[in-house]
Design brief:
Belongs to the short-chain dehydrogenases/reductases (SDR) family. It holds the Pfam family adh_short. Keywords: Oxidoreductase. This is NADP-dependent 3-hydroxy acid dehydrogenase YdfG. By secondary structure, the protein is of the alpha/beta class. It has a single domain, classed as Rossmann fold, CATH 3.40.50. It is built from nine helices and nine strands. The strands form two sheets. The protein has a seven-stranded parallel sheet, sandwiched between helices. It has a two-stranded parallel sheet with strand order 5-8. Strand 2, helix 2 and strand 3 form a beta-alpha-beta unit. Helix 4 runs parallel beside helix 5. The longest helix is centred in the middle third of the chain and has 26 residues. The chain is globular and about 50 Å long. The mean pLDDT is 91.
Length: 273
């Protein structure tokens, strides 16, 4: 996809963070936008700062609700007449040991981070296949490549998004639908503040505020930089998009030490703690 001008792009989790930055950049590049989030007030704030002239529609959407997705796809088709790209960006965080983790928390994050991507992909795939060129952009994480303590549930969902998307890409090879997986490192968003952060990665009983402040220190990439990397990656046909120097470094270490990388990161976590 060489241009976003006059394309219809669906973005989930568009009320803040990477989703909002994507909406801003796509708007400036002439796209028509179908934006969704569970936070309608913040989603309206996103719409208010867009500077493009393309059509923008807003929808309160719980990505964990399959029926809502199916109705949403029909609504976007009715509102825009076509869909050229979907960016399954909505996601949440959970930090807790496997032993202490509740099934409710596990189901919560799986339903949003994994099933939300599956529902979005399947609901819009028929519309995407109607277009001469289209794209599916599924946001995983660097934690879809490496695993760390207290991140078992988050890792499980992001590894699942990666596997699902890479398989889908092979199924759609040779078609008009381009498929890519996005792996952000630390991005300056509110994902920690909005998450269920029960135990820190170092095992300390830090408060949510302490964990959020620690994350802000190590998260070096802005949402705008992340959005730019994603959109340029899609234009360039990249099948895996790594965001941030930290993500690129961790990916490289994992490739060099596919089993022992955990020892390296364990040492680094103690230093950071």
């Amino acid at each position: 996809m060489q241009s976003y001008s006059e394309k219809v792009v669906v973005v989930t989790g568009a009320a803040s963070g990477i989703g909002r930055a994507l909406a801003q950049q796509l708007s400036m590049q002439g796209a028509n936008l179908a934006l969704s989030d569970v936070n309608m007030e913040a989603l309206e704030e996103t719409a208010s700062i867009l500077r493009g002239t393309g059509k923008v529609t807003l929808q309160k959407l719980d990505v964990a609700d399959r029926g809502a997705w199916e109705a949403y796809a029909e609504q976007v088709k009715a509102d825009h007449g076509q869909v050229d790209m979907i960016i399954n960006n909505a996601g949440v965080a959970l930090s807790e040991t496997v032993e202490r983790m509740s099934y409710e928390d596990m189901e919560w994050i799986v339903n949003i981070n994994f099933w939300g991507v599956v529902y979005g992909t399947k609901s819009f795939l028929p519309l995407l296949k109607e277009r001469p060129e289209s794209a599916i952009v599924n946001v995983s994480s660097i934690f879809g490549i490496i695993a760390l303590p207290t991140q078992a549930a988050y890792n499980a969902t992001k590894f699942a998004v990666r596997g699902f998307t890479e398989s889908l890409r092979q199924e759609l090879k040779g078609t008009n639908v381009f498929v890519t997986t996005v792996h952000p490192g630390g991005i300056k968003t509110n994902i920690v503040r909005n998450g269920r952060m029960k135990t820190s990665m170092t095992g300390d009983n830090q408060t949510l505020e302490q964990q959020a402040k620690h994350f802000e220190k190590i998260a070096k990439t802005t949402p705008a930089q992340a959005a730019d990397t994603i959109l340029e990656g899609v234009k360039g046909g990249k099948r895996r998009i790594l965001i941030g120097s930290d993500a690129r470094l961790m990916d490289r270490i994992q490739r060099l030490f596919p089993v022992r990388y955990s020892d390296i990161f364990g040492w680094a976590l103690k230093k950071l703690g």
